[in-house]
Queue: 2 jobs
Job 1
Amino acid sequence: MLPPVFGVLFDGLAYGMLLFLLSVGLSVTLGLMNFVNLAHCAFAMVGGYVTVLLVNRYGWPFLWTLPLAFLIPALLSVGFERVFYRRFYGKSDLDQVLLTIGIAFVSVAAAAWFFGTTQQPISTPEVLRGSFHVLGLDIAPYRLFLIVVGVAVTAALIGGLEYTRFGAQVRAAVDNQRMASGLGINVERTFAITFAVGSGLAGLGGALAIEIVGLDPNFAFTYLIYVLIVVSVGGLGSIGGSLAAALLIGVSDIAGKYYVPQLGAFLIYLVMLAILMWRPSGLFGRR
Amino acid sequence: MASITDAGSGTEPARYLKRQTRWHWAETLFWLGTLLPFFLFPDYLQLASQIAITALFALSLDLILGYAGIVSLGHTAFFGTAAYAAGIFSKMVWGEPFTGLIVGVAAATLLGYASSFIIARFRHLTLIMITLGLALLLEQAANSASWLTGGSDGLQGIEIWPLLGHFDFDLWGYTAYTYSLIALFVVFLGVRRLINSPFGLALRGIRENAIRMPAIGAPSRKHIRTVYTLSAAIAGLAGALLAQTTQTVALDALGFQRSADVLIMVVLGGAGRLYGGLIGTIVYMIAHDQFSGIAPQYWYFWIGLLLIAVVMFLPNGILGGLQVAAAWVQARWSKR
């Protein structure tokens, strides 16, 4: 028999994996281009609505919608990168913040216009519902599934970054953009692809998040704060850092809500401020 | 000998600063215009007092954003703290307005001074996150301490005594608007003096290049601490005024939405232009009042589009656009 602390830990890890999926793209693009993209969670929201639309209107099975929840935000983000973001790479933080907050505002209004302001219902497959008992703990299969997906994505990302040619180009561009382009790496293209993959992962996270935290048009802002916390705590441009920070924030949030519910979200803000004071560029940040 | 001292005070930078401090006729016109609501729109004085208070808040943000280049997404931390401090003071101690203002401003100044040590160490995303985190933390704290702040119901039961023992805070807002407008004008004069001083020039230097300023002997961090504390005090004055004129404090006084709104107002008018925040606030709040029939989520659709348009086509806001237009007209004129 395990004490309830393991149950809290398990839920925290599942929630952390979700935060990791939502935030890893932003971390890499911030590290690569130093671009403060506050519309990142708008792409996550697009993924969520893609899944809701396909499941509820066209009767697709939940799992089959996930590839599209990745693909559509990824393609959409390439369009936005071409039209808007590209013009703002060298500009000030303020201009980037304003542009992307503007896009996030528009996305919230568009989601409210097309889908209404209510929470969207979603039905997950039979196998992922309910719960089973292991050593006295209630384990929800859906959370187990989240952890599996999170581990798989981490493995794929680290593998892709460490062992492929493209990964080496991304790492070179993160380390020193000028030097990388001097060596003949097409930094713009590298960035566009990374940006698309990051937004796609956010979309996947958005789709997977519906079952846990729900989906309404305010998603673009509610989770933006969590994502920014993860990114700044983990350090820019670091996948391991994002994972560690996401798990830390996920576990502290769930543990805080379980043991000291009267504090609300107080605990994670405190954790973030403490870590940033201690290490201004995040746990694994180099700059 | 007199001629030498004259030459000394007439050097280029000193003459430049002096030229900047001279009042332009448009400025006088603007401030006379703020008196118009008394005669033309007496039904809208409550709104006018809200605008004056928000303009004061925008002025405080412009001081750090437009001049020192500190992007803050949590400036409500000071606004809200002062609003709660002034509200709780008038509820628990007494309702005299001036002492209430002093208590509110003091609370915000203390908080601003303490956090300025943190702010001065960071730039870029970390800075944005620290300011945001501080405001979120305070909002959560105010929500949790409902025995003191009323939590999500807001702080109720504030009683403000008549101003100077005579002028009641009436339903139409005569007193409220006069009170807020005087506060705005006095603070504006101070800020105007400040940014046209050598200290103001040093701030602009930090905005343009934070690394080079220490190299020419300007203590950047000390300047940032000073201006941040000042800005917190002004934001606190705005918050305390809001608590007193509306006689209630809601939790959204500390919310992210208010921080984002005031940032939008400053940018819309033109950051770093002194009048930018004021013009932006007037335009934004009058538009919001006129279109208040629109559901809030659609209001933000237009705000979002406006933001995108402003950063893409009007990088210096309305005032910057007007300046470009004026220069263009002048160039056409002189050609003839």
Job 2
Amino acid sequence: MPGPLASFILYFGTAFELAFLVCSIRRRSFFRYFFLNLYILLVLASSFGRHFFLSRYGLGSDEYRYAYFYTDALLTLALYMALISLYSNVFGELQFGKYVRLTAVLLLLGTALFSYGVVAQSTERLSTTFAYELSQNLYFVGLVLTYLLWGAVVKLRESRTRLVQFVLALGIYFSAYAASYALVNLASKYSIVNSLGPVFSCLLPLSWTYTMWRHSEDARLVPARLVAVPR
Amino acid sequence: MSGKLTALVLALGILVCSMGLKTALSSNHSSGTVLTANGPDPMPLPPPKR
């Protein structure tokens, strides 16, 4: 069974996810940011599924391991779709929607092929290895895509506060993931570094909830002010 | 350059950048690192490689 720190993260994370859904519905923005809500809904559903396997079979069991990594691959795909939906929001007025979708599909196919190429040599448990290889590769693709999207937000002078803050929250989330990935490589002997992923996954719905609750859809800001300090 | 070709080049460029970043961060431990960040559930150990 998980320790007190893992339980603490689990309960707070679930509370933040529920809070985001409630805020989204109350502010009548569920369908406007449908893919963000879908991602959080899937996280909640997978949390219940994982909890079932965790309580029934334990943390070290194969059942929990497979449930965890397969749902993780599914959730990463959902997060990728959420990110592409933010792209569609930003580029929606420029008639680039078709090319954004085409690039997203090609990129997803390319990542899947690359992941398959990496794990193809391992004949044992290919599907599980593929699930977490694909998931991790998509995290890094998401990181690069988020930075590109932030560049587009600044260049196009996007001013919708919610959209800007959703993108910034994703940027911090993916950057923190990349940093903790490097930290796991450098200090894998410390078990605390393995808790960093779940901690960051709590902070993402928290920041989205704050954005949804604090700002209305009509709120505007100038992102150029976030980048350049006036002298 | 047509729009479709641009999309293909862009997708390949992003893929190369992403995998390059992953390799750079993996340093010399590229074979065994598994870290996930979807959901607050405790992460199990990955399946052993044979």
